[in-house]
User: Fold these one by one.
Assistant:
Number 1:
Amino acid sequence: MTTRLADQLGRAEIQAVEQVEGFGADPWWIIALKCLGIFVLLLLMTLFVIVFERKVVARMQHRIGPNRVGPKGWLQSLADGVKLMLKEDIVPKAADRVVYILAPIISAVPAFLVFGLIPLGPEVSIFGETTRLQLTDTPVAVLLILAIASSGVYGLMLAGWSSGSPYPLLGGLRSSAQVISYELAMSLSFVAVFLFAGTMSTSGIVESQERIWYALILAPSFVVYMVSMVGETNRAPFDLPEAEGELVAGFGTEYSSIKYAMFFLAEYINMINVSALATTLFLGGWRAPWPLSAIGDGMFNEGWWPLLWFLAKVLVLLFVFIWLRGTLPRFRYDQFMKLGWKVLIPFSLAWIVLVGGLRLAMNEGVTRQQIFLVVGIALAVFMVISFISSWIGERVRDDEEESEDAAEKPFDPFAGGHPVPPLPGQQGSTPVAATVGPPAGSDHTDESDSSEEGTRA
Amino acid sequence: MDLYAPMIGLIILGAVFAVFSVVVSTVIGPKRYNRARLDSYECGIEPTPQPVGGGRIPIKYYLTAMTFIIFDIEIIFLYPWAVRFDHLGVFGFVAMVTFLFLITVPFVYEWRRGGLEWD
């Protein structure tokens, strides 16, 4: 057993090295060029997405949107950035100075890193040097991406804590609770992909999607990822940390000037990051979509063309983000956490077991018909059970509600210590006099109160 | 190590950009401080004094963080298993299902005891 395992590990090592072949051999100037390219691409994308979002949401609400700065308003976000740069930078008295200044930097820097591991295209030649259109790849690239993405939470958390004020503290706690909850569902949705791809390197995963996109054969994983990527980036309808009705501006309440802009920069880059990750893991990465990929012996899958497909896929996903924001109302906090912990995580775990079982059955030589038969029967049984249980559950709930309604107590306007008006349909037991000032019976005490106040004053 | 080294370039670029913007904005931005401006924001009233060291944090978040750690460890075990799935065969599958079951039991317990209720 041990020798077999050691043998396997040895082979795994060789395989891991093979998987990332073609990386780690670039000359330094190519690396510098790629870094700069990714950096500029991210900044431009951010500037573009902010205006794009405002324009799309405006259209959805029958407005025009920004149209003043630059051609058709496309330079609006640049102007906003410059304006924020010139604003007064306030560090509140109660704030922990060092952490307060570091927090926006901590949240912005990791956002830039994820794109280094995303494959933007196949091999291209830059000034005669053949290289892949990806900064670097490692055998554990996706794990590294998850690690980088979650270190951005420190920024939000520390920003909330260091402001020394109640609203930011609550906002910071909320966003960290939210991000870690949805990170679990997100990480679990990757397992099925690794199972099919047999690798964690991003270029390897794109390679293995040559025949079919994982979004099609692993649709449940894709759905879980889509939901959790919105939760992970704190975007509407899951933008609870910024729920202005409850927490003012959440963790960013005390921030001003460019530090405030840094959080927004990080948020938008993270949106681009998770979209790029979805493209890589589920939508075939830089590969041309189906009808195009068949043209001319795959000519659209070579050279610089793939960059176009990649960016197009990312833009479609970004549009989905904006679409969600334009159409859905914000979740309530408990509903949101319930969705993450009680729906997405158990569902993902069950899905992993199912996919593993199916894959195992295929590997062991069970025929497709047998698998379909077993899965069909299992699905039918499951559906019948869930239907019956939900039906019974509803009946029980209805009964409970009915009994609660029947046992309703007569309305008492002073129940909570403060007088409240009756709700529609309720009968007030004691008529509440709608007068300003003290009730008629308390003249005496009121006089003594006012006289006391008078003497104190 | 060659595979990881290029990331340093991005780290440097990102950090330089972030630090540069923060420093420049503090230098060129106006400075017209007054007492009210430096106070914490709290609906315009006198801010509530905050306890030194940030005070207490609601237990709910603590429980969420604990559960997160357990699941995160589970995921760390799931990833290599998924990558080597085809080579591990029936033994690997059964082992992982057992492991998942062991994690699911306390999860269900926490759920039933109301550890996953938020308000």
Number 2:
Amino acid sequence: MKRGNRQLTLITRRGLLQASAAGFAAAGAPAILMRRASGQSGFDWKRFKGEHIEVSHTLGPRGELLQKHEKEFEELTGISVGSEQIPEQQHRQKVAIEFASGNPSFDVVTVAYHVQKQLYGKGKWLVDVRGFIKDTQLTNPDFDFDDFAKGAIDYATQKDGRLDTLPLNLDYFVIYWNKELFAAKGGSYPQSYTEIIEVAHKLNDPKNGSAGWVARGLKNANLPPYLTFLLGHGVDSIDPDLTMHMDGPEAIAAAQIYQTLNRECAPPGVTGFNWNECQTTFVLGKAAMWLDGIGFALPLEDPTKSRVVGKVGYGVMPPGPKAHRTSLYGDGIGISRFSKKQEAAWLYCQWATGKAMNKLHLEGAFGAPGRTSAYEAVKTSPNLKAPREWLECMIESIKIARAGLPDITAVTEFRDTFGVALTNMISGADPATELKKATDAFRPVLERTEKT
Amino acid sequence: MASEAALSRRGSGHAAHRSPWRRAIVGRVRHRPYALFILPALLIVAAVIIFPWLFTVFMSLHEWKIAQARTFVGLANYAHLFVDERFQGALLRTLIYTALAVVAPLVLGTSAALIFQQRFPLRGLLRGIFILPMMATPVAVGLVWTMMFHPQLGVLNYLLSLVGLPAQLWVFDPGTVIPSLVLVETWQWTPLVMLIVLGGLAALPSEPYESAQLDGASAWQRFRHITLPLVAPFLMVAAIIRTIDAVKAFDIIFVISQGGPGTASETINIFLYLQAFAFYNIGYASAVVVVFFVLIVALSLALLYVRQRTQWAS
């Protein structure tokens, strides 16, 4: 098995950064921080005063956070910002088509590493920011590029070495578990994949409308939970040399687990469930376990939306038969190559991925940022909006995280082709047959799209 | 006309030095100066219809993926369509979906028109309520029905439970997804068929009914032998409109099932959308468009032929 550089080492340097992070933990609002930092370093944030930039976000917590604090950036720099938030699928299409047209409507854009990175890299649609980072006139000395986790920067780096985005958020797959349902049936948090199945069966109670397990079953969306099980079997879906493992014994074993859980222990209709249907099921207290990204603490702990407030356990993915892994996905932020205001856009990226914003990001439980200092700062922060268990689960998950989806251009086709196979399995199809069929269908696509 | 005279003078002076094509055009303009007025319309048609079509055909002859180099592949994209099981499945599902989404509203819409043709209290109000679904935005309709179809939280299974029937998976099961989507389509577009047929019924003469009654014909016989033949041209209009609508159905399917579970409700439109806007296979998607266009033209011609025959018979 080839590992490459995909395993994260997000908090390995936290000791080194502890001192500076502690300073941040005691600090106040980001605008005050920014102004203070600016004043101390003498960095001229106002050098592009009067310019206007357009920012295109994917709809979600990170977009909301940045939009909420946009005024502070405008006050800090004098640059006016127009921004939009577009639902994930539509955003990906809009951005790709606008880039292909050569005249995108935005200067700054968010990018999903697990879906768009290779496509954008091939098109060279984003600016390589390494030049900006080295430019002391354009980069605040307090920006501290080394504060980003090495794993996060590796994830953001293109195959040709270009760094065309900065990490905005990383998403680790974890198991949310309903402590009340577990207690009612005497279950304990599983310690292996076999135990996940046993506990899911034990807690499955369809007569009372309660499922033992829920995870995405909708084609395309169902790959991340499946790939989480695959990683525990010690292989990646596709190696960097394009060797496919999707119809091998490990893939079949992982598919059988996915099939058993979703076919025998999940709510009816799970083949149509994306993360939002899973979330609805879980917040209503109708599922004992839910495997998904770590960014759902806010809705789960919101008394206006959730019936399981204070009852949610945040569980690290148990070890698989051959490896202790969880899958990782992530988003970054980059500057359009076609933008005529790249320097002003770079100031925005610095602000959006700066220490202050990363701290707010983690403290507000919006997700997992890419800077190590944020974790140190929030570890003891009284302002953490999610239970402490959530943060601990995140920190433990970081240690076992590995990119879930393959680093290829045709990710969407990969997700679609194998997503259909997984959906068919939930409906009763044989995992080995489905995976073989999907592999045969996808292999020519892989050869065609990766040859250039 | 002064302009004609001016054109004529200018034309005669340089005619000997012009190419045959140019001479022909100038000659036509000289004799029919009003031809110039067609030019703007011709340019618009060329820009918005002819050029896009030619460009689509051009793209279909290439392997063309966004952000990658374009390669000429001749008819390879078309050849691949004939061996692409997913395309063939989508084609079959499109035909099944279209057939069901035309027949169900036609039967129910005709029945509703026969009812609303009768005089009864609150007829106007009920007719107004009946046509409300037609006015709703398809995406909004899709979202509402998605919630209604939810196996655990949806109102449909609740209603079934009230009459002692077991819960269904609706759009979450490969076996029931297409009938469930057709149910939405039927709910929304039956009123349109009702309005068309009601218009036809209102225009029917009363004499054949009077003589049939005198001859002792039953209600069914009057419907079967008088109403149905006379209203057939209107039914054909409704069938053509519904067929065109059903073949190009996208919004309802995309919002409710996205072509799933798996590919169980993936019609050609969904397949095309995935190829073009999810996989960015512009060349292959263009080939699908061309083949789909040919199919739609063939279907439309067949329907028009049937309509002509219906009119002749009526």
